[in-house]
Amino acid sequence: MRESVRVDAETPILEAERVSLRFGGVRALTDVSFAVRRGEIFSIIGPNGAGKTSMVNCVSGRYRPTEGRILFEGRDITRMPTRRRAALGIGRTFQNLALFGHMTVLDNIMVGRHHLLRSGFLRGMVYWLGGAQREEIAHRREVEEIIDFLEIQHVRKAVAGQLPYGLRKRVELARAVALRPKLILLDEPMAGMNLEEKEDMARYILDLNEEWGMTVLMIEHDMGVVMDISQRVMVLDFGRKIAEGPPEAVLADEHVKRAYLGEADEAVSEPEEAVA
Predict the structure, then answer these.
(1) What is the pLDDT of residues 145-162, one digit of tens each?
(2) Alpha-carbon span 100 to 113, nearest angstrom
(3) Which of 162-171, 206-215, 234-243, 257-266 bottoms out in mean pLDDT, i.e. has the lowest?
(4) Could you report the per-residue pLDDT of 51-95, keeping only the tens digit for each?
(5) CATH number of the domain enclosing 267
(6) Do 79 and 192 reside in the same domain of the chain?
(7) pTM exceeding 0.85
(8) Per-residue exposure over 166-198, b if at least 16 CB sit within 10 Å of its own CB, e if not
(9) Total tally of structural domains belonging to the chain
(10) Which keywords annotate this record (predicted)?
């Protein structure tokens, strides 16, 4: 029986309902609920080890919640594999760069479109006779548009692993955008960047949201960026939600102030790939 999916203008694109996540006896998330509205930039903030990346990993399918559920466009995706979530329209970048360092920038971005390729192995065998060639040309046009948008034309044939850090972050964003996601998950897109690079990245994120129609769920430590580009913010501390709302109201909250001024180093420790 086909699953019923409720999708309308009033339905949040993403909902997390009482999500908890444990690693053995360690609680990374406890009873976290929130909703991301279609078309907004929604940021998750909090001290180191607060569970931010763990939450994004639950959304992307990297982790499966111990309790609770996650809905995307009204569909329960809690147990859905990562590749199926990508096919539905969820793309992401990583806190630690996950590029193929030995491949060119162009090839890295092409990898981001593999979920959209319809041509299978047998059609690939007759590449020059069938539709696979035409399909690849169309995908390359899309990739070139993304390369132009992110202003990385000058490195399109460069080996990704040899690029400066700021450019590699831009290439990682390009690969996520190549999927043409409805919802893009950005895990600390500004980390390690200088002021000029941060300003450029903020502009790209705003354009993806406003001109390309992508809803953005972002983890970010730079409060200036969060205040400037987010419509709403959620704060996590020790794996629990302590505040949610417009940036100005959230950052004025006394609980939030205590979380940022407290002993962040004592926060719950997560596996290395989950620490935000």
Answers:
(1) 999 999 999 998 999 989
(2) 15
(3) 257-266
(4) 999 999 999 999 999 999 999 999 999 999 999 999 999 999 987
(5) 3.40.50.300
(6) yes
(7) no
(8) bbbbbbbbbbbbbbbbbbbbbbbbbbebeeebb
(9) 2
(10) ATP-binding, Nucleotide-binding, Transport
